[in-house]
Design a protein that fits this description.
Its main location: cytoplasm. Its EC number is 1.3.1.98. Pathway: Cell wall biogenesis; peptidoglycan biosynthesis. By secondary structure, the chain is α+β, with helices and mostly antiparallel strands. It folds into three domains: 78 residues, 2-Layer Sandwich (Uridine Diphospho-n-acetylenolpyruvylglucosamine Reductase, domain 2), CATH 3.30.43; 104 residues, Uridine Diphospho-n-acetylenolpyruvylglucosamine Reductase, domain 3; 101 residues, Uridine Diphospho-n-acetylenolpyruvylglucosamine Reductase, domain 1 (Alpha-Beta Complex). It contains eight helices and 20 strands. The strands form seven sheets. Strands 6-7-13-11-12 form a five-stranded antiparallel β-sheet. Strands 1-2-5-3 form a four-stranded mixed β-sheet. Strands 17-18-19 form a three-stranded antiparallel β-sheet, with helices on one face. The chain starts with a helix and ends with a strand. 39% of the residues are buried. The model has no long low-confidence stretch (mean pLDDT 95). The structure holds flavin-adenine dinucleotide. Flavin-adenine dinucleotide binds next to strand 3, helix 4, strand 9 and strand 13.
């Protein structure tokens, strides 16, 4: 109970919290402690405390790209969703890690700034988006990030764009233990686009091409860059033009559309979405992802990589 009392200094704390409430796929084990930390400074104080006491922790943003495997987390799950101050200064945006990506996009449009319209369709937080270099409509986080403030081993550091080591759905934060505190974006002043209309078009397109009404974690596997090792006859022209093959298409061609395993199902609307069709366990989801990877490898010789983050509790 000492830990519980101490944690309350940093935000709202819950004991034995079911984690399905905090992931978009609506699955997860139970956490000993769950805390909605309420500011960047409290996040830093909390991390210092957990470090000093050697207590395990996991940081979650919106939980929209995360699969939590296991029954119980003996430690503290930190939610950043209440750490969400967003400031605009001309064409620059400073956003706390838990700020909603879609909200930043909406505010940018309102401020007549362009470059982040795509973010309106992406659920979750800017911290999660920066970690996974989220993107849509041909853009991603690296197009807008100027620098990132992080907590690393008890210190607060500012990482330059280059130090973030962004790649396709990848960044240094997927490979180290840095906790993102704030993200600094640089956008362009809009001259002639109808930003509100473009954002509406993006939303309409999303609603048509993504499964509605079932919990998911978005695309589970990364799209594939075309290189000389890929020998697929009759690739659709749009993939050749973009140099990227849609993994949803590969999954469909491998005969996995609509495939189920327990409560997990490959969406019929977008085959790269594995939905919780009802009562799925994380094992169902993870096993179905493995099956998809095997089938695509058997048919095309392509090894798919996870886009979704799998965290073992
Ligand atoms: C319906 C739907 C549509 C989606 N569409 C898209 C899309 O178009 N494009 C796209 O790229 N993604 C998409 N996604 C996936 C997801 O929304 C994005 O990847 C999103 O940016 C993840 O943010 P989050 O806050 O939910 O991250 P979380 O799932 O909470 O976390 C993801 C990872 O980041 C880490 N993390 C989170 N916050 C921090 C922090 N402050 N510091 C360090 N590490 C942190 C977590 O530990 C975890 O490993 C979609 C998901 C859904 C459900």
């Amino acid at each position: 109970m000492e830990i519980y009392k101490k944690l309350k200094e940093f935000g709202k704390v819950k004991l034995n919290e079911p984690l399905f409430k905090h992931t978009s796929i609506k699955i997860g084990g139970v956490a000993d402690f769950f805390i909605f930390v309420d500011s960047v400074s409290h996040l830093v104080d909390l991390l210092n405390f957990l470090r000093k006491e050697d207590i395990n922790y996991i940081v979650l943003g919106g939980g929209t790209n995360t699969l939590l495997v296991g029954e119980r987390f003996e430690g503290v799950v930190i939610s950043t969703v209440n750490v969400r101050q967003i400031k605009f200064d001309e064409n620059k945006v400073t956003a706390d890690a838990g700020s909603s990506t879609a909200e930043i996009a909406r505010m940018s449009i309102k401020n007549n700034l362009t470059g982040f319209e795509w973010g309106i369709c992406v659920p979750g937080t800017i911290g999660g988006a920066t970690c996974g270099n989220a993107g849509a409509m041909g853009y991603d986080m690296r197009d807008s990030v100027e620098k990132v403030e992080v907590y690393r081993d008890g210190e607060i550091l500012e990482l330059s764009y280059d130090e973030c080591e962004f790649g396709y759905r990848d960044s240094i934060f997927k490979h180290n233990t840095d906790i993102i505190l704030r993200v600094f974006l640089k956008l362009e002043v809009n001259k002639n686009k109808d930003l509100a209309k473009e954002a509406m078009n993006n939303i309409t397109h999303r609603n048509k091409t993504q499964p509605q009404g079932f919990p998911s974690s978005g695309c589970v596997l990364k799209n594939v860059a075309i290189d000389k090792n890929i020998k697929i006859k009759d690739l659709p022209e749009q993939f050749l033009q973009r140099g990227i093959i849609s993994t949803g298409w590969l999954i469909d061609q491998a005969g996995m559309k609509g495939e189920s395993l327990g409560g997990a199902k490959v969406s019929e609307t977008h085959c790269n979405f594995v939905i919780n069709a009802g009562g799925a366990t994380t094992d169902d989801i993870v096993d179905l992802i493995e099956k998809i990877k095997d089938k695509v490898y058997d048919k095309f010789g392509i090894k798919l990589e996870e886009e979704v983050r799998i965290i073992h509790l």
